[in-house]
């Protein structure tokens, strides 16, 4: 019985770790899409303040996002 509980717990840990890693990958993809949209907005002539207003962020946060390396 104890071995079955250990195996079940071990399987749950592996599944949770896999799910966590997948969510991290997805998070990075979404961050990159956001950064690119900010770059496109800048290229279209929007100011940092205008981008921040549209995104609900402070303009200094927008600047930090744009400075992030892809």
How would you characterize the overall build of this protein?
The chain is mainly α. It has one domain. The protein contains 3 helices and no strands. The protein is rod-shaped and about 65 Å long.
Layout of secondary structure:
Elements: H1 2-43, H2 48-55, H3 59-67
Helix pairs in contact: 2-3
Short description:
This protein is an all-alpha fold and 70 residues long. The protein has one domain (2-67).
Span between termini: 50 Å
Q: Could you state the order of secondary-structure elements as H and E?
A: HHH
β-sheet strand percentage? under 5%
Q: Rounded to an integer, what's the Rg over CA atoms?
A: 20 Å
**Which stretches are low in confidence, meaning pLDDT under 50 for 5 or more residues running?**
none
| Number of discrete helical segments | 3
Structural class given helices, strands, pairing?
mainly alpha
């Amino acid at each position: 019985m104890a071995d079955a509980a250990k195996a079940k717990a071990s399987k749950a840990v592996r599944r949770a770790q896999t799910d966590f890693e997948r969510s991290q990958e997805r998070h990075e993809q979404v961050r990159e899409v956001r950064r690119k949209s900010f770059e496109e907005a800048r290229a279209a002539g929007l100011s940092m303040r205008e981008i921040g207003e549209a995104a609900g962020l402070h303009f200094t946060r927008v600047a930090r996002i744009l400075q992030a390396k892809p």
